[in-house]
Amino acid sequence: MTVTSFFNRQTPVKFEGEGSTDPLGFRFYDKDRMVMGKRMEDHLRFSAAYWHSFTWPGGDPFGGETFNRPWMHGADPLALARQKADVAFDMFELLDMPFFAFHDVDVAPEGASLKESIANLNAIVEIFEKKMETSKTKLLWGTANLFSNRRFMAGAATNPDPDVFAYACGQVKAAIDATKRLNGANYVCWGGREGYETLLNTNLKRELDQLGRFLSMLVDYKHKIGFNGPILIEPKPKEPTKHQYDYDVATVYGFLERYDLLQDVKVNIEQNHAILAGHSFDHEVRLAYALGIFGSIDINRGDDLLGWDTDQFAMNVGELTLLMHEILKHGGFTTGGMNFDAKIRRQSIDPDDLLIAHVASMDAAARGLLAAEKMLADKALEGPVAARYAGWDEAEGKAVLAGERSLEQVAERALGLNPQPRSGRQEYLEGVLNRYV
Questions:
Q1: Please, what are the domains in the chain?
Q2: Which residues make up each annotated binding site for Mg(2+)?
Q3: What class does this enzyme belong to in the EC scheme (predicted)?
Q4: Would you state the pLDDT for residue 191?
């Protein structure tokens, strides 16, 4: 541990039990507790997000920096990046964090050229390598920021200028090289500018074909260098563009199928993005599992009264219970995890607020995990759902789904039927959920 002077606390946060009132003590997250045959830590696979924790200055559309972090101002960008890395790994150790995730430009400064930017990234990756030799914290995933720089204002892979496309290829190659070098479990693509602001100047088919080719090239390169983790696309419907091509899980699935990418590309799902698409988090996760493209989670929440991506720390135990119920039902994570793509509020300016936010959200997720374990053991939701669809498990239902009946045969059978509706029992099931949370 570097032991910088940034945080007031210098000893790792511990599990203290449900009776604890210490904001820097875990009440439910007991990393070694066994849940359905696996340690709690191995189920949840928490990851700290480098960008929101250490790069975001606390600004919003109407106001600038509020955090005034010491590594955000100075004449030597690489020296500041090294200082930021020291504080980051201090936080990882204080929280006993299993993983972290990063964008290239969040860990290292952009240079005057792509060559200089790659050199800066590699310099910080070398520091990460040394720190990770003595740290338990591993890399969940890396990615490239292809949306902040003005060169990407019209997209990266979908840009009308092939030189911008080429620059994006160079940046992504360096980022996945760094991810492999650090033994990252996944590589993520988020198309913040891969969309349009107006159809008046947009060729939709051309841009989709460009994006499909870009991802195909990335998949080919992944295999060439022996990167074994999946490529993950993070769906988002809008903001900053009017429409983004990775709108939601269903849209991404159709895109992957069209460009023959289903074998190598999955999705990284974020709660806040699901809400912006008009869906629930539970819907997006369930659909990803149903379509066979579930990969990983960005765990946060939005504000119901605001129409943009607020990236707040996840604290809703009921929502987290449904999330963990779905993940546990499907056997848990493989290469994915729960990445805290979340920002403390711009008024939370004390350094330890960053620790407290993570502790509270980790506890909320742990509560959801324990509740989901009990629900699955009791078949609290699985039983009623199975009963509702029981007819499809009988001989005729199975025959229809197996293609052993024609439309005429099923219609003939219907002449002797008089089916009556049955209650969906929504309020009963909502009450069942509340009993566990």
A1: 34-378 (3.20.20.150), 396-436 (no CATH)
A2: 234, 270, 273, 298, 309, 311, 341
A3: isomerase
A4: 85
